[in-house]
Structures
1.
Amino acid sequence: MSHPPLSGPPQLRIEGTRATLQLQRPAHHNRIEADDLPQLQSQLAAVEANPALRVLILTGSGDASFCSGYNLATLTELGTDTDMATSTTSTAAATLDGVIDQLEHLRLPTICALNGSVYGGGTDLALACDFRIGVEGSRLVMPATRIGLHYYANGMRRYVERLGVANAKRLFLLGEPVPAQELLAMGYLTALVPPAQLQASVDALAERLAGNPPTVTQDMKHHLNALASGHFDAAAITRDHRKSLASTDLREGLQAMREKRPPKFTGG
């Protein structure tokens, strides 16, 4: 976004309550290499463990592509190793789908700033975020079926949960380029802006999310994801609802509303 594009593994920046994770291979459409996976895994774990953080922004370098997914030249190598081909086997090996699952279940709200077009596994990486802001003139291409690749389970689940089965079939089975305006209409994009406005739009959304009460925001994100998957815990939702009724953040929010001032939430 505002930082000059580099070339190499993903970089994590921490600025106050905000974390920014940036893919940095613009010459290769910010594709993800095998060596990037353990680093992404560690970076997401560091974000998860940092109590000061309130929001994560995921973006790419340059102005052509957000991400082209996993390096296609190495895909056939995965088929010879079951532990590397799926995210449900060896926990010692970082996998693309495992990293994307980790992103999906991050406690913080997440924003994907799609600085350009998105392809293949990059489409699922963005879909795992809570919000996606795209730029006009970009497009999505999911070529899996066209190249003979059956997609992994949780990636298909995310597509169906978030976009509906009709849109999932269109994107997976046809594999045709879909322009940004249609991605907005189907719900893949939360917002669509001119490229020059991407940074300001992401900043505004990040500030709004970071200003919310962290405990309630993170608990509600967790339960909304569970509700979407059909495996929610009603008793746990009720417990968190009752916990919020006794919280200092609720008292602060009500007081701030009465005094017509911005609230100062602490997570209590």
Note: The two ends are 34 Å apart (CA to CA).
2.
Amino acid sequence: MKKILCVYYSQSGQLTQIVKNFTKPFEKSGNYSITFAPIEPVNDYKFPWKGYNFFDAFPESVNHIPCEIRPLNLENEDFDLIIFAYSVWYMSPAIPSNSFIMSDQAKRIFKNKPVITLLGIRNMWVVAQEYIKEKVNELGGNLVGNIVLQDRAENLTGIVTISYFLFTGKKDRFLGFFPKPGISDKDIANVDLFGEIVKNYFENNMLDKLQEELVKAKAVKINSYLSTVERMAYKRVFLKWAGFILKKGGPNNPSRKKRVKMFAYYFPFAILVIAPIEYIFFLIFAPFRIKTIKRDKEYFSGVKLK
């Protein structure tokens, strides 16, 4: 019987649903032993978020600074396939997810093992996934597949709905007419279709061709504008803001409170004012970047490092 490990951190519970539905084809076959191993921070990030706490998590997220987590409670650390599911905070893996990937336990578990990444996100993820690619490679793992489930709402609409969800914990229609926040129930329910693809390729020893099939099945979709903007924003804006805040200390440090609040005002301004302007420039110059856009789409759809 093949052994599968699912490692994930689910703050709201949404990612737990995704993981459980994804593994249904493996469970139904009866030929697999599946271990679900949620990552547990010693001091968890409460959901729904409080405003200040949400922004106070920004610098540690961006700079991949780990929090203290409990070791995964595993009887045996030898598995045949690893499913690493994570969400994205500020264009980076959620702090608890990153904390695990940096741990000594991850070194033992990932070494020489095939790894599937399974993302549940709003809409920006390529920067986080590039980081995870590098970490899996450093750990000696073999990243063979990537699946991304994301909020289908248009960018600005999604900002409104996800903010409503993050700060209230409610997943109904904000004001009665906005779409429901987060990943749709239909997409969460149908993620088992991708699980079936992974199972078939795993059983036939064809994991080297898995990602190509997942892309055909639309398990990964690249938005050229968003992938371009997030890469620029991460390097030019997020890293600088994070460094500016960290100069005043770590999480919950009163000395950095003023700078965190400054970022809290800047963040919506950047989304509502700067981002639309960048979108206009993207559209203007896109015809001159067709080859670059195509190359980026092909690369970010895959699982290999440049």
Note: Residues 77 and 109 are 6 Å apart (CA to CA).
3.
Amino acid sequence: MPPLKEDYMKKFFEKPKWNESLWFYIMISPWIVGFLSFTLGPMIYSIYLSLSKWDLFQPPQYIGLKNYIKLFTMDDIFWKALYNTFYYAIISVPLHLIIATGIAYMLNKKMKGMRIYRTAFYLPSLVPVVASSMLFVWIFAPDTGILNQFLAFFGIDGPAWLLDAAWVKFSLVIMSLWGVGGGIVLLLAGMRGVPDELYEASEIDGAGKRQQFFRITLPMLTPVLFFNLIMGIIGGLQTFAQVYIMTSGGPNNASLMVVPYLYDHAFNFYNMGYGSALAWALFAIIMILTLLVFRSSSMWVYYESEVKS
């Protein structure tokens, strides 16, 4: 008796895993083509450019490691920009983590109208960085700025925030706290995921709110804090728009950072080879710092399903 049509169909659909693999690669192929064409390809080409001299008009001229030698041995402005970048990241990233954790802890309480408060804290992070930068140019204005007017109400003579070399970097740090809402959302989600049984058991043992926060909430939040730390380091070391719009690196390069400096060389000074060398130097620094944080995570990041010996 010949096999029924249903048997053929059953064998076809139950058949091989290679069929599933083929469909997987067909479905993912647009992303693969886009990644190879617009990400990996330009990255590889930028390595060649970092070893070349190119003004965007003439063909690139291979010069070996001269760009890197100049960068690390003769370019004092690069070291100034690198110092400013680390100054900004070292202050802003921990501040983000501390403030976001504190606000998320308060927003996790059961109170009437809490959804409105959560929305209010998250909304500023949705404002485009160009718009928020223009807003803070007005806030930090020496005479007419709202911040100095507020300080004057208490008899305090505020500084010329963006025009004073001693205050300009700290002004950018203050401005960065405007977008703390993204971290708050992640931390709040992590707090909502902490099992109530842990708090109930700690209450039976006589633990107070402070002990519960440091002994239960924070350890359970360490995966989220770890993620926010990594993203904060990467984002902080790549700061560009705020500096470019608010200060242009001034006064006297006091707020100049690596990415705006890279942009100036590549697109304003038409020195794409040197700009590419700057980009790869920054990439190496970010990669090293990220790997160090990953290596340290085993000492302080706790996963609920993990059993440590």
Note: Residues 1-39 form one domain.
4.
Amino acid sequence: MSPLVWDLAHVGSQEEQWLVRDVGGMEPLRPEIDKLYDAFEHSRSSRPSLPLLAPGESRGYLAQVRSKTLDILDRVPLEGSPLLEAGFAFGMMVQHEQQHAETMLATHQLRVGEPVLHPVAPDPRVLSRRVTGLPPEVLIPGGSFSMGTSVEPWALDNERPAHEVHVPGYWIDTVPVSNGSFLEFINDGGYANPDWWTAEGWSSRNDDDLTAPKYWMRDGHQWWRVRFGVVEPVPAEEPVQHVSFFEAEAYAKWAGRRLPTEAEWEKAARHDPVSGRSRRYPWGDEDPTSGHANLGGAALRPSPVGSYPAGASALGVHQLIGDVWEWTSSDFGPYPGFRVFPYREYSEAFFGGGYKVLRGGSWAADGAASRGTFRNWDYPIRRQIFTGFRTARNDAPAGGQ
């Protein structure tokens, strides 16, 4: 991970380059730091040794950039060029900042020492609406649906264009896999049995000596976890997080299931069988509220499975947005008709790079960067990010059981 102060000033640097200079046409504020905060110039491992701005100076720089950005927003018409249409450039920077805010939370989770972050207490009205006794899985009927988008104003290039995809019928978990369910895999020797792992996954398990999700530890019969400096019992009802793609894949095979494809995930989240259209979010087209999903980072943890019934999809699948990013079995690549916009390094540079697609957004994600079409990606070994999963299985053929 990068030093926190690198992410902080990087947010300001990108905002200056795209909004102050490109959109606003203003003179550069700090051109000498452009390369310092260019993510493609310096690897994460090299950033601690760079002559970075100090925390106070970084905050001052970001405040200066933000002040100019707000002035530009007041005077620039949000129409005309592709960068300005519907405020795309501003929306791109909003999403960029929120993605780095989530990255900084992942960095905080990695640090050792006394807690420095403290959660906001959950709204008791939301918790009281938690549903138990849900069916374990939902049947998603086979057929075509519209995947991706051509109309979402802030959609990034990898989400475009909308295109019809035929998906055979399948079953998908109603809620994400919980800690309690994952513990059954552990207790059954799941980490010790190569039968559940692919060759690549087993190699990763051995190379990193994986025996449980990251930040978990065992004391006798009790499992504990470290969450932002707090040591606490692993809560069985929360979605499991901090697992790699390989761990999710092994669990799914152990359970006699598999990970859903990206198209299956999106159909479960967006398809409305009554109207035949694809929604912006599982619950509809309105932006997320605190009643729909656990987003925004304040909770510092996922909500128990079955929370937020108002956020369920038209097909009855729950917690598809917020709580944990969900691994899919799909590699990250372009949609048919993909066009680079506004720069190659946002998406195209990562196609074919061994990345797996993640969907849905975590509790640490912002609503601006967690819509039903939003695509995240990472290496299959990654565990420090707020990732979980749900499983799927094929629909039984006609006449089957």
Note: The chain has a mean pLDDT of 96.
